Amino acid sequence: MENYDKLKSRISEIVDSKRHLEVDLKKQAADYREIDKKMNSIKPDLIQLRKTRDQYLMWLTQKGVRQRKLNEWLGLKNETTEDEYSMVEDEEDLPHHDERLWRLGNINRIQAETLLRGKRDGTFLVRDSSKPGCYACSVVVDGEVKHCVINKTGTGFGFAEPYNLYGSLKELVLHYQHTSLVQHNDSLNVTLAFPVYSQQRR
């Protein structure tokens, strides 16, 4: 009987420990999602700052400032003759600028899933929504096709308030090309990286 009571007590301790671990894991997961959202919210500002920095570096280079001096100003210790700073990729070359590659108009959910099935994560298209006056974005996330509504309001296009502020669908797509959708939906930790027809037409 004594051994039974000890075993019962031990099992109870294990169950309590498991419950506490589950609570801690859920809290950590929520904290990580919040951190991810905050990081994504400042990413556009960081990209703009890098672009501004690169413009100044280019101007200084054209004025004859040597690479060693630029590295010194940037706090870089490597004094090779190669460029030590990374330039932001020119967004003008992105296929996202060609709306024909991702804006498909009047197709339904099933047709969108057929087009996107088997594509890599981040492949997307924008179509007319069954909700009047709205659009829908279909995107591959973790191998599955997910759908989300794009609102069209008096302030602009967007996935939710207060983010309905893009002047066009193209502006929205270009923004979320480098910003994750996770800030609007925890299951959409993905960017609009690859227009569905970009590979075929490039």
Automatic annotation (TrEMBL):
SUPFAM superfamilies: SH2 domain. The keyword Cytoplasm does not apply. Gene3D superfamilies: 1.10.287.1490, SH2 domain. Residues 102-196 form the SH2 domain. PROSITE patterns: SH2 (PS50001). GO terms for biological process: insulin receptor signaling pathway; phosphatidylinositol phosphate biosynthetic process. This is Phosphatidylinositol 3-kinase regulatory subunit alpha. The gene is PIK3R1_0.
